[in-house]
Structures are given as C-alpha cells and as structure tokens.
Specification:
The chain has 376 residues and is of the alpha/beta class. The chain contains 17 helices and nine strands. The structure holds coproporphyrinogen III.
Length: 376
C-alpha cells in the first residue's frame, strides 16, 4: 500500500454533489444503547454470536479519502492530530457521522506508542525512524512502555470517543504486531521488501527475538491500557506478515504476537489479529488464541474459515480497489465476499487492507448500506 501509485488512471475524486450526499447522511438519530445498526452486531460477530445484520467497518476509515479529514489535516500535522485527544476523537468519529458503520477504530498510528518510548520519528506520511534500531545496545536501551505516563493522550482519546460516539458504536483499540513494528524500526522507513529487517532475522535471530519480546510486552501494556480506558475490542495489525515464509513467520512474528495476546487474555475484550498477505500462513494462525482473524483480499474467506476452524470469526476481505467499480459491479463483488464468508455466525465485513485515499466516499456509503440491506 505504501508504494502504491495510481499514476495511469486517476481514480474519481468526490464531486461536490457526493459531498452533499455525505453531509445529508451526517447526523443519524443518536441511539444510546449500543443496540441496532451501530452497536451490538460488531461485538456479537466477534464472539460468533448470531447477528441482525453483518457488521461492517473499514480499515483506515478515518483518513484522507474524507474531505472533512483533509480539511483538518490542512491545518494540523498528522502527529499533532494523534496527540491531541479532542482532534483524534473528532477524526475517529468523522466516518461514523457519514456512514452507518458498526464500529469505530481509534485514530492513531501503530508507531505512536514507539514515539512514547522515546523513538524519534516523522510521518512523511509513512513513518520514518530517525535512528533505525539494529544493535543489541539500542535494543537493551529501549525503555518499558508505561501508557499512562508515555501516551496519556491516546487513553484520553479513547475516553472521549466512548463518551461521544454516534450511535454508541463500539470502539476498536489497536497496536502494531511486534514483527510489523520491527520492520519499521530496523529499516527506518516504509519499503516493499523490508530487506534489512528480514536479513536481520537471519543474521541476528536471537537479537531479533529480544527486540520482538520487548515490543510484544510494550504492545500488551498499550492494548491493556486502551481496553481499561474503554476500548471494546483490540486489534493487532500484522501488516507485513506476507513477507515471511511459514517457519520464520512462526518463529518470529507469530511467537511474538502470541506473547502479546497471552498477556491480554484476562481481559474480557475480543481480540482481532490481522495478517496482510497471510493466505499461506493460516494454518499457523489457526493456533493463535484470538477471536477474529482479519484477512486480506487475496485469500478466499471460505478456504480461510475451513483452515481456521469453527472457533474463530473472520474479518474482511473486499479488495480496496473494488470501491472503484461501477455501483452494480460493486454489489456483485460484495455478494462474492458474503457468499465466501458463508452463513455461519462470525463474519465482520471489511476491506482486505486500508481504504485508498483516492476513494470516493459515496462508494463507501453504498458499500455500507448494501452490506446491511443484503444481510438484514
Ligand atoms: O482509520 C483508521 O484505520 C485508524 C487510523 C490508523 C492510521 N494508521 C492512521 C494513519 C491506523 C489503524 C493505522 C495503522 C497503521 N499505520 C498500519 C497498520 C495498518 C495497515 O495499513 O497495514 C501501518 C502499517 C501504519 C504505518 C503507517 N502510518 C503508514 C504506512 C502510513 C502512510 C500510509 C498512508 O496511509 O499514507 C502512516 C501514516 C498514517 N497513519 C496516515 C493515517 C491517516 C496518513 C497520514 C496523513 O494524514 O498524512
């Protein structure tokens, strides 16, 4: 996603008319109970309970495809947005005002807690670490994360969203999975291959494990604090899972993710593990003690569900590019995802990866409404 460019065919930009339609949809009647379209379905689906409709939310639903986000970003840089609770909460809620989404995801970044641990980085817009971490000395010097001290603004943002979310939509807290964080820390910037990070696993496996353990413990503390502040589900993003062959995935990425997840099991909060490009890794992921597995668009959900077994819900997995299809075609693509997901409880509709900044918000409105209509 980082390297993706759309140089040949510029995707449609939202027209003023589409923005008008969006703002018409902006203020659905508030419901306080967490019931109905905005509330119970998401948490029920996480727990594989029957639902009134298939819940849907969209990865990166708070972001640059929304004109109201771009308007705010024109005045405030990204890091400041994430550190200012009023603004982070506002951006978190922007998509919920526009669309009947079934969940909110906190507006923040996977690198935010690392900044709290004293790692200097810039968003350009992808994260760029000023001094990449590659030595034992640097890893040993990494401090523990104490969320209340190091990232209090994140916890305050969680509280603000919980107090104000339209339709009382449930809030997802999140963190980067340890291996995905390692990729950025070792390479220092977004990359297609993350060559230095992968080589690090082979050259210094013990030191890599030490870094992963430290990150796993920090993210466990971070996610626990988000849940204690009010987050109702927790998601771990393994965005670069697909870089690894199954043995390295198990030894490095999965072991560290399991360390984080094991530390959270005493909380009564569903846990979602998202593995981008994880099709070949699902047998390994089946052993992870999570409620939901997030799936990218390359892996058919039917096969994934068979591999994961009946004990896990799935989340996904429409190709973000499908939002550029003509409206009737989009419906067909949605139907395919729904039929792959099957009738058994435990499907949360989502894209297979983050929504593209060039996406027309009208397409998102059509997607959300159609998933609700079709599955009600
Ligand atoms: O709406 C949401 O999903 C919540 C907000 C959110 C952001 N980043 C905001 C953001 C979430 C959940 C993330 C997670 C994240 N960040 C991941 C995991 C999910 C994934 O996409 O695989 C990763 C790998 C990152 C690292 C990161 N941060 C990248 C690669 C980028 C640049 C890519 C991009 O989308 O431009 C960022 C910056 C970033 N994080 C932006 C946003 C809205 C763009 C910043 C801007 O407004 O300039």
């Amino acid at each position: 996603m980082v390297e993706r460019t759309l140089s040949s065919t510029p995707p449609p930009q939202p027209s003023p008319a589409s923005q008008g339609r969006g703002s018409e949809r902006s203020y659905p009647l508030p419901r306080s109970t967490g019931e109905g379209k905005g509330g119970g379905a998401f948490l029920a689906a996480c727990r594989r309970q029957p639902v009134t409709h298939t819940p849907i939310w969209v990865m990166r639903q708070a972001g640059r495809y929304l004109p109201e986000y771009r308007a705010l970003r024109a005045k405030v840089d990204f890091a400041t947005l994430t550190r200012t609770p009023d603004l982070a909460a506002e951006v978190t809620m922007q998509p919920l005002r526009r669309f009947e989404l079934d969940a909110a995801i906190l507006f923040s970044d996977i690198m935010t807690p690392l900044q709290g641990m004293g790692i200097a980085l810039d968003f350009e817009p992808g994260p760029v670490v000023r001094e990449p971490i590659r030595t034992l000395k640097q890893i040993e010097a990494l401090p523990l994360l104490l969320p209340e001290r190091d990232v209090p603004f994140v916890l305050e943002s969680v509280r603000l969203v919980r107090a104000n979310a339209p339709r009382n939509a449930p809030l997802i807290g999140f963190a980067g999975a340890p291996f995905t964080l390692l990729c950025y820390l070792v390479c220092g910037r977004p990359s297609k291959e993350f060559a230095a990070a992968r080589a690090f696993l082979y050259v210094e496996p013990r030191i890599a494990e030490l870094l992963l353990d430290k990150l796993a413990d920090a993210m466990a503390a971070y996610l626990r604090a988000q849940a204690q502040a009010g987050a109702q589900a927790l998601m771990l993003f393994e965005s670069w899972a697909g870089l690894l062959a199954p043995p390295e995935f198990r030894r490095f990425a999965l072991r560290a993710a399991a360390r984080t997840i094991d530390a959270l099991r005493t909380l009564d909060v569903p846990i979602i593990y998202y593995a981008n490009q994880g099709a070949t890794l699902m047998e390994s992921i089946a052993g992870l003690d999570v409620d939901v597995v997030g799936v990218d668009w390359r892996a058919p959900l039917g096969a994934v569900r068979r591999t994961l077994g009946a004990e896990k819900a799935v989340q996904g997995n429409l190709d973000p590019a499908a939002l550029f299809a003509a409206p009737d075609d989009l419906k067909r693509h949605v139907d395919l995802v729904l039929s792959e997901a099957g009738a058994a409880p435990g499907h949360i509709f989502n894209l297979g990866h983050g929504i593209w900044p060039e996406t027309n918000p009208d397409a998102v409105a059509r997607l959300v409404d159609y998933v609700h209509e079709r599955t009600a």
